Each structure stands twice: as C-alpha cells, then as structure tokens.
Amino acid sequence: MRFQTLKGFHDILPDDFRYWRHVLNMAVDLADRFGYLQLSPPILEETRLFLRGLQEGSAVVLDKELYSFEDKDGAQISLRPEFTASVMRAYVEHGMHTWPKPVKLFAIGPLFRHEKPQAGRFRQHVQFNAELLGEEDPAADLEIMQLAYSLYDELGFQELTFQLNSIGCPNCRPAYIEKLIAYFEAHLDRLPEVDRRRLSVNPLRVLDTKEPETLALLENAPRSIDHLCNECDAHFRSLTGYLQALELPYVVNPRLVRGFDYYVRTVFEVWGAELGAQNALCGGGRYDGLVESVGGPKTPGVGVGIGIDRIVISMRGQGIEPPPLPHPLIMVLHRGDAAKVEAVRLVSDLRRNGVPALLAFGKRSLKSQFKSANRARVRFALVLGEDEIAQNAVTVRDMESGEQTLIARPKLISWLQARLDIR
Fold first, then answer.
1. What angle do CA 17, 18, 21 make, to 5 degrees?
2. 14-172+228-318 — its CATH code?
3. What percent of the chain has pLDDT over 70?
C-alpha cells in the first residue's frame, strides 16, 4: 500500500532545507539583533481562544478553517491557526505583563488552517512571528516593520516597499464605517452578492475585495485615513515621518485591512518585485486591546507574521540561492577487520572534537571506498590499514590534489582542524 501527503500539506525535502535553514537562521539572528526573546506556545489550544472577540464575519470564516475536535476530556480544542492569540495567552498566564515594558517576543512554528490550497498557501505552514507589547509609540510600529523588511532585504529580495494604512481606533472607526456603509448602500445595485454580505457583516472586509465591480466603486469610496481622530492621525503622521527619515519606501494603501478584527491604527504589508499575482510577502499591524480580550490588563501591542514557506517559494522563483548546507569533509576508509575497528574509533574521536566525519560502511575494496569519498564531496580521505595501525598513524589523501601524507594519530585532529578552519 502506498501513501501520499494529505491535500494541502507537503513534505519539506533535504534540498528544500538549503533554503529553510538559511531563512530560519536569518530570522533568529535578526530577532536577536532587535532584542526579541523566543517562546514556543503549544500547537493545541482551547478553540475559544482563537474565536474570542472576533466580529461575526471573521469568526465564521476562522471557525470553518479551524482544525478542531473534542478531546478525550470533552474539551473543545484546535490546532493553532495563528500565533498572536497563543502569545497573548502566554503573556498573561505567565506574568509577562509584569515585566519591564516593552516586552519583545518571537516564535517560530507550524500553523494549521483548513483553507483552499493554492500557490504559496498550505493547510500547514510555518510562520515566524514577532510581537512588541506594552508600547504605544509609533516607533514601535516602525521597529516591527523594520524587522520584517530587514529579513527580506538581507535574504536578497529586490524592490521592497511597504503598503501602509491606518484603520483608526474604536473612537473614530465607527463613524468611518457608517460613511463606508452609506457610500456602498448608495451603489447597492452595482455591488456583487458576496460584497453585500460583507457589507452587512464586516464592512471593512469590502475594502479587501477581489470583485471587479467593487474595485471600480472603491476608487471614490471614503478612506479611513481621512476620518481619523486626532490621536490616530498624529500616530500615523509620526510613523510615516520615521519611514521618510530612514528612506524606507512606502505607499499609503486605503484598501489595506487585516484578516482579524482586533487590529487598530497601523496595518501594513511588505511587497516585493516580480512576485506575480501575490505581491504581499507578509503583513502585520497594531492590536491595542488584544491582551485585554484574553484576561490581561490594558496593553498596547504591535506585531507581524511572516510565512517561511512563502519566502522559500519566492526565493526559488527569483533565483535567490542560499549558501550550501554544511556537510562532513572527512571520510575514514579501512583495509581489513582490525582496521575497521580502529576506523570506528577514529570517526567517533573526530566527531567529539568537532570535525564532521563519515565512515565507509561495509567491507568494500579501498578503490570502491575512494569512489564513495568522491561522491560525498569530502576534502580528505583518511586511510587505516595494518601499516598505519603499526605506526600509530593515518594516511591522509587530499581529494582535491591527490597528495597523500602520513600523519601521526596524536597530531591528526589538530592537523585537520587547521586545514578545515575548525576551532
């Protein structure tokens, strides 16, 4: 019987990890440089954690996408569909809200959503998530945006730009939504059925439409940045001022909203060049009040989620090559049973001293073992036989030049470390 991966899931194969290791190492390095601390929430959480506080439209959509079930204790639990809710729960549960502010956290791991599979979107995908909690300063928004931008920039992505919008706060957004509803109701006869439903359930989602008829109407629709309160307007102006000071490219996009209703003020995406129909590389924004929705104190926050699968696909599409994966540069060959025992000891000794090494398995001829060393692309082949054992030495062949040298066993490791730049 043959098995295959489930629909919407995929294997990450050894060749893929040339990219994955590079991207993940870069993400962790950047998080360290920016002063973020790593945490790892569990994959399973109470279902209500992910549905709390959402408006009806978002809750219905998310509920349909959740991988949910009743466990043996009768609890309703789900595979996490996003990181932010789990991070907020951990922040409150473990008393991180009492730490000096801001609290800067990041997480990396798989997320699960039962959505329609398409290019770059899988039902299981890995995300790098960064959150900055306890700070209202628009410079905090800038830092999260910089972290995302820096990752793509240092990976080699070209023509990066921010798509930026402010969707206001609970004080000014209701009045804007009233104007938005009034505008579209005046053009209801031109509005497709799918957007009529959005208008009645979650009007901001109409801005994110893909329907051609609605896109035409959006040209003259009210813009949220024109209806901000004084505090939201000042926040947005400060943020754009910082972006200009750093010469980071941005475009104010009045159609930009996020998929969850807990976002306030800043919402953003990073776009890149030559990505086809899906220009957006990642997205994030400010979510003041989210900590309160999971039982914590009033806490401002801002964050970003970056899909690693999406980065790898984009790198391949743009021909961005990662550095090669490290591989052992030594193979130990042997002639005879007694020499094989010594070879096993030598390989173990090399590895303990930080020298990556392979053992030639089996009882093949020395010629066959040298072929294996060539295929493994090692730098040196170490040969053990009766003569070498008698002299307490090893014959070392440089696989690039073909030169052979007899090295005493006590000096071998330091000899190799110096030539392989291993410390």
1. 65
2. 3.30.930.10
3. 95
